[in-house]
Amino acid sequence: MKxxxxxxxxxxxxxxxxxxxxxxxxxxxxKKEVKSDNTPVTSADITxxxxxxxxxxxxxxxxxxxSEEDAEIPFSERSQWQRYWLVDPLDGTGEFxxxxxxxxxxxxxxxHNRPIMGIVYVPMTEVIYYAIxxxxxxxxxxxxxxxxxxxxxxxxxxxxxxxxVSRRQDPHSVLKLFNQPRHCELxxxxxxxxxxxxxxxxxxxxYVRVGPTGEWDTGAAQIIIEEAGGQVMDLxxxxxxxxxxxxxxxxxxxxxxxxxxxxxxxxxxx
Length: 270
Hints:
This protein is of the alpha+beta class. It has 8 helices and 14 strands. It folds into 2 domains: 3-147, 2-Layer Sandwich (Fructose-1,6-Bisphosphatase, Chain A, domain 1); 155-266, D-Maltodextrin-Binding Protein, domain 2 (3-Layer(aba) Sandwich), CATH 3.40.190. The protein has helices at residues 7-27, 43-59, 75-78, 93-98, 171-175, 192-200, 215-228, 263-266; strands spanning 32-34, 40-42, 65-67, 83-91, 104-111, 114-122, 127-132, 136-141, 144-147, 161-165, 184-188, 206-209, 231-234, 253-256. The strands form 3 sheets. A 7-stranded mixed sheet has the order 3-4-5-6-7-8-9, with helices on both faces. The protein has a 5-stranded mixed sheet with strand order 11-10-12-14-13. A two-stranded antiparallel sheet has the order 1-2.
């Protein structure tokens, strides 16, 4: 199976789910609950989950699916998977509830513990980010499609980093991770995948996430970032991997546009 053979169908599935989410969002009548891990879930999450999983099963019946809304699959079973779909039906549920519009649909294809295709669809702007391993990263909107690249800084440019941060996050919690925070410019946006895509298209240089996320939050963003020239790493600067542990929770991580900057010097040592 070549991922490029399925990318347009997967994009169409993401758009279908995103359209349903947008309708629920604009209508404003959604149900909200708190899951056992204290994270919120809405009827929009569940609706998108059902749309995506049903469509992916029709598209590729032999490829298993791991979705945030159906993640209770024993490691003994999923560790046998060589290839699987990794889905976050609604990334940025908190932003959805808050009414900011900064949320997205995420679909990734993972092979041998690494994402090889990723799609991030933004329902409220109808923007699509996607990438395929070895074939580049792209942004598509109503004006057309362009190949995207992260901003490459030399060592001298490291003093003026543009950091993507959440609109509901205390900026100090991010700035204190850097040795020279006075030289950092903040770019505010909600949704983990959307901040990663900001880095991929060069509108931000870095995004640091401290706090719980699942592998579904980063799978698609990781291949988009990598194909744009950047990298997603844990705070020890090792690339994230997938489906290799009992837990599906990510470590704290950093998304960078310039892989050759001295990030070990820029970040405060723990």
